[in-house]
Design goal:
The protein is α/β, with parallel strands linked by helices and 157 residues long. The protein is built from eight helices and five strands, in the order E-H-E-H-E-H-E-H-H-E-H-H-H. The chain has one domain.
Length: 157
């Protein structure tokens, strides 16, 4: 009760496609185009696909759950050649888990709901995550943050 799901529409997607996908879902999702950062900044929690969006969400100070799902073939190739502890940029930069990461088969409704409730219903945990995200923002500092983030990520590999 009292939960509202909002999807900031990516420039690369058409709203009709998203609405068609969700039309039979019991969960109603409001789609908003052209205001990605406003939508994220107003959220109590974001579920974010791993990539630069995790850093953007983190810099906005919004608690998040990071999800990452690829094809089985891509997963096998990645496991053979890449050995990293974290997938999300905020976790990579922090060198520890700030935001929970759900990977492959863990990316499902039940697990996402469980992680979301663990954050939303625990004020202390949520505030700790916000504080750690603010620390990342402070570490990123002045202009040139994207370059510093890329360097930190490269150093971790």
């Amino acid at each position: 009760p009292g939960v509202q799901f909002v999807l900031p529409l990516a420039d690369t997607l058409e709203e009709k496609i998203i609405l068609d996908i969700g039309k039979n879902s019991p969960v109603k999702i409001k789609v908003i185009a052209g205001k990605t950062y406003d939508v994220i900044a107003s959220a109590d929690l974001a579920i974010v696909a791993s990539g630069t969006a995790t850093l953007e969400t983190g810099l906005l100070g919004v608690p998040m759950i990071i999800i990452y799902k690829v094809s089985l073939f891509s997963e096998l190739i990645a496991r053979m050649f890449i050995s990293i502890q974290h997938m999300g940029l905020v976790n990579i930069i922090a060198g520890k888990t700030i935001a929970p990461e759900l990977i492959q088969s863990d990316v499902n409704g039940q697990r996402m709901a469980s992680e979301a409730l663990a954050i939303l219903l625990n004020h202390e945990k949520k505030q700790e995550m916000i504080a750690e995200l603010q620390d990342i923002r402070a570490r990123m500092g002045e202009p040139g943050a994207a370059g510093r983030a890329a360097q930190i990520a490269c150093d971790m590999l």
